[in-house]
Amino acid sequence: MAISTDRQEPLQVIGGSIAGLMQGIMLKRLGHHVQIFERATSNDRAEGGTGITVGPDAQRFYHQYDLLKQSLYVDNPGIQFMNGQGNVTRFTKRPMKMSSWSLLHFNLRANFDGHKSSLCPDPPAPCEGDGEAIFHLGKKVIGVEYAEGDSRVAVRYQDLLQGEICTVDGDLVIVADGASSSTRTQLLPEVKRQYAGYLAWRGYVEESRVSQETRKLLDPNFTSFSFTGGYILSYIIPSIDGSLEPGKRRINWVWYHDCPETSPSFKESLTDAGGHVYRNYVPVGQIRASVWKERVEMASKILNPPFVELVMKTAASAAAISVIHDYASPKALFHNDKVLLVGDALALFRPHAALSFNQAAQNCLLMEDVMRKKIDLHTWEKGVTAYGNRGLAINEMLGGFMIYGTQKLS
Predict the structure, then answer these.
(1) Which string of DSSP letters, residue by residue, matches 72-103?
(2) Please, is 405 exposed, middle or buried when counting C-beta atoms within 10 Å of its C-beta (0-12, 13-18, 19+)?
(3) Distance of CA 185 to the CA centre of its chain
(4) What is the rounded distance in angstroms from the CA atom of residue 271 to the CA atom of residue 373?
(5) pTM (two decimals)
(6) pLDDT (tens digit per residue) in 310-335
(7) CATH code of the domain occupying 74-99+194-325
(8) Which parts form a coiled-coil structure per UniProt (predicted)?
(9) What is the dotted CATH code of the domain comprising 11-47+101-192+328-404?
(10) What is the pLDDT of residues 202-230, one digit of tens each?
């Protein structure tokens, strides 16, 4: 199917997070009108302290499309490995650029529709030739419908602010609504999240609250310490207000720990103070006090001194838990090539190799080649599904090696 060249016809994007915004910006800059349908009812997003590695495709995207040209990254020379005493035993040169989800997200919003935020208070003016960019809040997509022979796809959504069920037609619909994509479930009900067998405890602490000794050990590298049944890592990310100034930034840590789904600690860890059991992610501030206290006590028993300090100085309000899942969709095109899956809606990786953010950019830049008629949609599909399958395998093997000491495959 050839994509319509009518730039007056709005293109629809389901999901207003990283992958959806990247697609929207690219299409807008090529002169297309774009509508993004986002389930969240507010532009305000809770600061989760999520650190992100900005890979080569993502760097290329920002270089090409970021009109703000603001400083977004903390440069990281490589990975250092520590022993139980907190001494560095090995260093691998692997330059990386680290940032935070919030800073990158609001930069993309500013570039897409000129949204002002505390992180991006001066959004760029539209470029000559830009298409119209509309970001719809409170629009929960409940299905895409297509009858064979139709020229358009119907997107049905619930307006969470008005309580209405509405429909919008589109010649091209890009599904970017993340790992819990209801649209992917409709299109590929057999593709389900697979639990990896372990949880990721996450947190951050301001540099200024960490001892000089520990800061000197950790800055500026990505640091890792392995133990039986898990490992913990740390790296530096921008401050809550986006500052990259040393002393004002945050040290982000992620602690992977084996936790069978049938174990009592699995449900205990995911249950908040009100008794609600989370399925995929316990947000910051929702970990029960008793659960967090137990985790801090465990840290003092099995982690080395620098990481013990990080965990002990992390407030419960700055900690979260991720249930580690993965999957890869076997295809990305649907309904006569009018509906496309991208980003985490297409493939969800375990986070060990930090490829998810780069996947969103890779999918987008390859889609740009489609829009410029350099490749067709089926070549695009081969490229994005290959990236998804490769990312799935790399992270599964890396996680198995780091946590279990073997390339444990499910």
Answers:
(1) --EEEEEEEEE-TTS-EEEEEEEEEEEEEHHH
(2) exposed
(3) 19
(4) 50
(5) 0.96
(6) 999 999 999 999 999 999 999 999 99
(7) 3.30.9.60
(8) none
(9) 3.50.50.60
(10) 999 999 999 999 999 999 999 999 999 99
